[in-house]
Specification:
CATH topology: Pnp Oxidase, Chain A
Number of domains: 1
Number of helices: 1
Order of helices and strands: EEHEEEE
Strand content: over 45%
CATH class: Mainly Beta
Number of strands: 6
Radius of gyration: 19 Å
Distance between the termini: 13 Å
Low-confidence stretches: none
CATH architecture: Roll
Mean pLDDT: 91
Shape: extended
């Protein structure tokens, strides 16, 4: 994952693209006749083992950043690789937990203007 600085200990990344939608109905009908689409944003979560100082700094300073997550299926050089680039991100919340085995995890919730598959 890239923010200019590597984020160590990433356990998971999840995101969804959210598009505002409004149903348009005809007068005198209970059925939709069209749909109007509006703002599209990306909402996501990154969970890391322990904590990520770079994401803590972005939360504290409320500054935007770009993030790239490189995903690789296996360890070989020929294994398929995919990356997702998140533009204009903001960290919104942070949740910290320690499990019974003493493993700490922090989940950072972020929003982005867009996500691109590269």
């Amino acid at each position: 994952m890239g923010l200019g600085d590597a984020v160590e200990g990433v356990q998971s990344l999840a995101f969804r693209v959210v598009t505002e939608r409004e149903d348009i109905r005809a007068i005198g009908s209970d059925e939709r006749v069209d749909v109007s689409f509006g703002l599209r944003t990306v909402a996501g979560e990154v969970t890391v083992r322990s904590t990520a100082v770079v994401l803590d700094d972005k939360l504290a300073t409320r500054t935007s950043f770009n993030m790239v997550a490189a995903l690789k299926k296996g360890q070989g050089a020929d294994d398929p690789q995919r990356s997702y680039a998140f533009d204009d991100c903001f960290v919104e919340t942070k949740q910290f937990a320690i499990g019974a085995n003493g493993t700490a995890e922090t989940t950072y919730v972020f929003t982005a203007t867009r996500v691109r598959e590269e």
